[in-house]
Amino acid sequence: MYKLAIFDFDGTLVDSTPGIVDVMKVVIDEYKFEAPMLDVWRNLVGVPLPRQMEIILPGRGPEFHLEVADRYRAIYDGMAIEICPPFPHLMAMLNELQEKGVHVTIASSKRSHLVQVVLDHHGIAHHFKLVVGAQDVTNHKPHPESVHHILKHLTIDPADAVVIGDASYDLDMARNAGVDAIGVTSGIHSREVLLLSEPRHIVNGLEEVVPLILEGRSPIASSLPLPIIKEQK
Predict the structure, then answer these.
(1) What is the per-residue DSSP string for the chain?
(2) pLDDT, tens only, 10-45
(3) What's the pTM?
(4) CATH superfamily name and code, 4-15+86-221
């Protein structure tokens, strides 16, 4: 059994991707950006907002990036609870992991106070030992700093931890930290994209996550074809 589960937030614990994309559409319309920008931007869910601006607006400077990011935040912050409904099976999963003694944490590219607002609203904040957000680390996903921070804070060995996320950035963060990963196809990236990051498992939803966490590193529970899985060191 893994002692520690490190969850991404958007697209993993809460079904926020559609709402996030809607906010992107509003910003694109307000600034009269080209419509194809949305396809690029939506694939960056999970990347810190300042970095998103650099990628989608490469020809503009930091001041304009900040202006657009602030506008996005102004819209999003007023809708944070509304556009972050929990996925089905979230409560059952959290209750079972707590019952089994698994430490549950969050590593998100969202600002941690917004994550906390949603957790408090749904009455589930007490399930999480630690929430690490964008402002809590210097280096963001896929850099392993968030994972290292959590491991150090809870004094847990990497071999006893697993990252669960819906985006390649989450799975690459896990790999860079020397930690196992479970990909979930409930968010921004498809199974095919997640496969490229070589997680230990890929599942369709939270209802499939608990058995894998409780099974730990045993290959018996693997949900990937064996030739795809590489031995974790």
Answers:
(1) --SEEEE-SBTTTB--HHHHHHHHHHHHHHHT--TTHHHHHHTTTTS-HHHHHHHH-TTS-HHHHHHHHHHHHHHHHTTTTTT-PBPTTHHHHHHHHHHHT-EEEEE-SS-HHHHHHHHHHTT-GGG-SEEE-GGG-SS-TTSTHHHHHHHHHHT--GGGEEEEESSHHHHHHHHHHT-EEEEETTSSS-HHHHHTT--SEEESSGGGHHHHHHHTT-GGG--S-GGGPPPP-
(2) 999 999 999 999 999 999 999 999 989 999 999 998
(3) 0.88
(4) HAD superfamily/HAD-like (3.40.50.1000)
